[in-house]
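Input for the complex:
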Amino acid sequence: EAQVTQNPRYLITVTGKKLTVTCSQNMNHEYMSWYRQDPGLGLRQIYYSMNVEVTDKGDVPEGYKVSRKEKRNFPLILESPSPNQTSLYFCASRLSWGVTDTQYFGPGTRLTVL
Amino acid sequence: GQQLNQSPQSMFIQEGEDVSMNCTSSSIFNTWLWYKQDPGEGPVLLIALYKAGELTSNGRLTAQFGITRKDSFLNISASIPSDVGIYFCAGQYSGGGADGLTFGKGTHLIIQP
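Predicted:
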């Protein structure tokens, strides 16, 4: 089954404790990205990757890092989480950057930073 | 990034009613997308529109790409309980940096039986 998976689905942590949210897709997609979803703000892009070893900032990259060492994986790293990073995070992938490619979303990771 | 205005923010309707929501932008887009998000899930693509003026249906859903390329609407006919969720529009442009995909803030659809 074609899918985007994220782990963990739920995470409660404390300020400053480094964490990683994993994302994996099995569709051989080149393009992957991370979004955060906050009430009243909709979906905002954090980082994206056009291919292996190619990453770039989205609209709200501060406080986040990503890496793309393999095509299927695109982990999101919070080196020193803060309470304002409490949010619902979605990983997404599509075949390429192209406008006609369907974007698939993962199930989401709900992060709470105390 | 570009801003999308999506309205209404929420809708409370009776089962069987038709629903209409729309998105407008100050900038033009090359593609308009409509997604639905069920509680606890990620957004799922409902309809994609690639040409100005295009009208596309997917079952009880109909969406149109505005002639000016700055707006789009989504209609749902004869709503049923499983239509409940958050509907997002998204516009995509081929120029510029970043993702080129901008999301609206969503329309919460609540259906009263």
